[in-house]
UniProtKB/TrEMBL annotation:
Pfam families: Glucosamine_iso. Keywords: Hydrolase. CDD domains: 6PGL. GO terms for molecular function: 6-phosphogluconolactonase activity. This is 6-phosphogluconolactonase. Pathway: Carbohydrate degradation; pentose phosphate pathway; D-ribulose 5-phosphate from D-glucose 6-phosphate (oxidative stage): step 2/3. Belongs to the glucosamine/galactosamine-6-phosphate isomerase family. 6-phosphogluconolactonase subfamily. GO terms for biological process: carbohydrate metabolic process; pentose-phosphate shunt. NCBIfam families: pgl. Its EC number is 3.1.1.31. It is an enzyme of class 3 (hydrolase). It catalyses: 6-phospho-D-glucono-1,5-lactone + H2O = 6-phospho-D-gluconate + H(+). It comes from the Bacteria.
Amino acid sequence: MIKTVDNVAEAAGALLLEKAEESIRERGRFVVVLSGGSTPLKMYAWLIEGHADAPFWEHTHVFWGDERFVPHEHPDSNYGAAKRALLDALPIPSEQVYPWLYGAGDPEGAAHTYADTLQQTLADAPFDLTFLGLGDDAHTASLFPGTGAVFDEGLTTVVRPPGKGTRLSLTARRLSRSRTIAFLVQGEGKRDALSATLSPTETPDFDRTPARAISAQEELVWLTDVTL
Ligand code: 6PG
């Protein structure tokens, strides 16, 4: 479903509140997957401004859909960005926050370690809410067009897109193990990527538009201020 909204950050924040309350009511916990990029930062500010003391945070578990293979203090770290912009202001127990580990040796070791972390904490349980972005080249998480990463099996993968450093990502299959998926797409700069990803086609090219390979168990929504 495509929801064209004036304020993507506010719509995304409201969705998180809704799914958190529903998940905790039904299962006693809320498992959310954050993405990187700049769009989520506005949602984080909205959440902190009005909901930093919400009771559900203490029952919230946080994962990342992808990460750059850099130390957490590096400016490119998705975990580092979320910690500064959101987590440091919330009462989420640190043992319920699961960053990808840079110190796990090489990128493949970091990917294997995260797969183990997923297995040990969730087994094959679905995430309750997964946020994803869309690059202007139509990548999502770190599944970049032209790399074939969208076809990778298993839970995690290492992607080396030209000029983008080394990336760690959940696979399309594991991302699809989500009750709800929300793609956050803001700005006219994403129009072409959004159109390429959502335009009806009999023969989807998953390597060119990786987001097409991602489905949700209950609801997949595109929150965007772009009117196609
Ligand atoms: C990353 C993200 C990436 C991001 C898109 C959109 O690590 O860079 O996970 O997939 O979501 O590039 O980024 P913006 O929100 O900045 O447009």
